[in-house]
Amino acid sequence: MFTHKNGEKRWLSCHSIRTNHNDQLAVQITLIDITERVKAQKELKKALAEKELLMREMNHRIKNNLQIITSLLSLQSNYETSSDPHEILRKTQSRIKSMALTHEKIYKSSDLEHINIKRAFNKFTEEIFNIYAVNKTITLNRDVEDLEIETDTITPLILIINELLTNTIKYAFPHNEKGTINLTLKSQGNNLILTYSDNGIGIPETIDINNPQTLGLTLINSLTSQINGTLQLTKNPKTTYTITFKEQNYKKRT
């Protein structure tokens, strides 16, 4: 390797052979600039290393998520009160969908560490509406800041949205009444604030968010703790969940 007069580092391949020149022993030296080939080899090596990292990361996450699914099914069997097998399957399907979405986003992203939360929320909420065949009487308003969030934070957030959204769809608007759901996520200083509300029939005054008696609320509490967040529930004038958490490494899209 040598330094060009413009300061750029260049790689050379040097070949020498003995020869005769004017009946005298001589050495012929050939220099070939192989800088681009070296750069290509380095890029290939880097790409292979990233692929290996991706495979290890995906295997790790799949193993963890299978354990989560096993735990969810175990918890659901303890809490389940519905006798409708279709309803039980829908609940399980939506929870598994949330984790599958995270894997899909990681696989399609060039950044293994962050996922765009706005796109993830948009796609997942559409999936839930499809699973539960939600008609046009329920309107979902999303106001999610265009942020890149760490992958370790995405799955708990998506699972929280799953529990809130499915609960609203099933119970908040009986008899196909019209209703509105509002979902926002905004950065505020060093915090991120997730707000979820609906104008449905509300939840019973006896519900204690700090001492939940249902699997959904138990999961929301647990997942909020997992991201080191705080959960606040307001029952009037409309049901509103506010989750405040810190995400040290989020990136704003520009």
User: What is the approximate shape?
Assistant: elongated
User: Compute the gyration radius: what is it?
Assistant: 28 Å
CATH T-level fold name? Heat Shock Protein 90
- The overall pLDDT, averaged over residues, is 80
The termini sit apart by 39 Å
* Helical coverage, percent range: 40-55%
Q: How much beta, percentage-wise?
A: 25-35%
Order of helices and strands: EEEEHHEHEEHEEHEEE
The strands making up the biggest β-sheet line up spatially as 6-8-9-11-10
Going by CATH, the homologous superfamily would be: Histidine kinase-like ATPase, C-terminal domain
Largest sheet: 5 strands, mixed
Please give the CATH class: Alpha Beta
Count of runs of 4 or more consecutive helical residues: 5
Overall number of domains: 1
Find the structural class using helix and strand composition: alpha+beta
Number of DSSP strand runs: 12
Q: What is the second-level CATH architecture?
A: 2-Layer Sandwich
Runs with pLDDT <50, length 5+? none
